[in-house]
Amino acid sequence: MDSRPPLAEAAAAVLHDRAERGLLLPEAGHDHRQAGSCFLNPTVTDHQARTLRSQGAPLYRTRAQAWRASAAWLLEACGYRPATEVTRGVRCSTRRTLALTAQAEATASGFRAALETMAASVYEASGIALHPEPVAV
Questions:
Q1: How many Cβ atoms sit within 10 Å of the Cβ of residue 91?
Q2: How far is Cα 133 from Cα 54, in angstroms, rounded to an integer?
Q3: Whether 68 contacts 41, CB under 8 Å
Q4: What CA–CA distance (Å, rounded) separates 91 from 110?
Q5: Are 62 and 74 contacting, i.e. CB atoms less than 8 angstroms apart?
């Protein structure tokens, strides 16, 4: 028999899960000003997928059967870790490498430079291009 949990119970479960994965914005601390996930998981060739799989990278197939790699794994393979300062005032979240946070001295140009620096590191190491998820206006 199909049954649905009460809305409050479902909402609490979702918030708990997101908090466990570092997906909620804290009210204070290093991660309270964050841009969220900053790169899309890139599409990779069959050859790149085989190479990445041999290195332990997580991969998945899209509905169109294209391979996608984990942008977070690629960044971590290049040495980026939670809390890494990428450019002045711009750090990886203390919980997730893929999310960038703004410290007091951060600027918009610093965020752009951080995205460019991180994407260049991945490309130099793997030949895989990362594309920023946030759209600059």
A1: 23
A2: 27
A3: yes
A4: 10
A5: no
**pTM for this model (two decimals):** 0.77
Taking alpha carbons only, the member of 123, 117, 110, 22 closest to residue 74 is 123
* Burial of 119 (C-beta count, 10 Å sphere; 0-12/13-18/19+): buried
Query: pLDDT over 70 for what percent of the chain?
Result: 80
All structural domains of the chain: 27-126 (3.90.78.10)
Q: How far apart are CA 127 and CA 81, in angstroms?
A: 20
In angstroms, the CA 99 to CA 89 distance is: 14
Give residue-wise pLDDT tens across range 10-68: 767 766 776 666 665 556 556 655 666 789 999 999 999 999 999 999 999 999 999 99
Angle at 111 between CA 122 and CA 135, to 5 degrees: 85
Tell me if 101 sits within 8 A of 30, measured CB to CB: yes
The answer to whether 113 and 85 have CB atoms below 8 angstroms apart is: no
* Chain position carrying tokens 């005032």: 89
**Count of beta carbons in the 10 Å neighbourhood of residue 73:** 18
